[in-house]
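Input chain follows. Return structure tokens only.
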Amino acid sequence: MEPPRTPPNPPNLPAVPDPPPESRRSPAPPAPLPPRYEPPPQQPPRYPPPQHRPPSPWARLRLRSRRGAVGLGLAAAALLLLPFLDDPGRWWAPVGLGLGTLVLLHLLRLDRLLRGWAPHLAGLVLVVALVQATRENPWAWAFAASIAVVVAGLLRLPRWQVLAAGGVLLVVSVVGYSFRAAEVAQRQDQIAAQAGQVAKSGQGERNPNRVLPALLEALAEKQQVVFCGLLRSPATEQVAAATGAPDCAGAFAALSARVTAPSGYADAVVPAPVQRGERSWTADGCRLSWPGGEDAGPQLGRLQIGETSPMRSYVVTGYQPC
């Protein structure tokens, strides 16, 4: 059995001196860490104190009572309808009716019973009278309403929806009013022309040379009043008998239906009337010719022209067919 092996002797190393007594103390504790940063608690934002602002002009115009709003609406409607009267010279009629209603309510002591609504009732009567006086063009009512809506929209700004609706209504009413005004003007011109024809037919022609051309123009332009107004008895009955009609209106319808070229029928070459007496002439309407060479309508017949008194005008007093 082998003896235990002993480790070899360590090499000779330099001796390490013992540490000094001060180094044997326990190490100092570490320095404390700075506290963790935390944001301050959130606080509500601070706004500057409200400043006093003067009211806008639109805010001052806003009415705060129902009575004032109704009165303003009636006044605006009356002012807007007044320029569109069918007869501007009779503006005093609706205005006098409104003022008369107001005076009557005060005389009858009904203003106390109405509790301050008497002026509004008189204004309503005025507006109704103006509506009646503008019935020829009802688009005037829409125009007045559109102006009222536009004004209301301006008072309610910045709420522009009412203003936009009023603008659209204003455009539509202006277009409609223009077309209707043109129709009314055309109808009035026709009435005036018809009145002139009636006056002209009652007076006759100022020259005997104009009687036959005037009859041709009346047939070409479908002016029955002028045609029949230039005929006197017995010429009226003779023309009706020649055309097989019961009266002058039927004779005119039969003759005007035979006009093939209305634009050129009145341009016929007419022979001059021949004087047969002191106040009598004869016009031959059986020899009519037209510049184009073709007949534009019927040969009218032979006319006897006489002078009327005291107007000293000339009409047809006798007729003979061709």
